[in-house]
Amino acid sequence: MIIKVLGTGCTKCNKLEEMTKEAVLELGLSAQIVKVKDIDKISAYPVLMTPALVINEEVVVSGKLPTKEEMQKLLLSKAS
Hints:
This protein is of the alpha+beta class. It is built from three helices and four strands, in the order βαβαββα. Strand 1 (about 1-5), helix 1 and strand 2 form a beta-alpha-beta unit. The longest helix has 17 residues, at about 10-25. The N and C termini lie close together (about 10 Å). The mean pLDDT is about 95. It comes from Dehalococcoides mccartyi (strain ATCC BAA-2266 / KCTC 15142 / 195).
């Protein structure tokens, strides 16, 4: 699974990256987590606001931080 955290480095963007790493570890998933800060690369996705979370090239969260439970559900749904 490839997970991309889209954001230019704001507090929420950094928090989303941290939450993603924690959830992957807690769930014991095999995933590559990539932080995308380049605005040109971010604009290639259908995202109006950051932070955004992309799992296997599908935008699953945009413009907000998910709860821990939402994050885990998203990751588990995309892991299979």
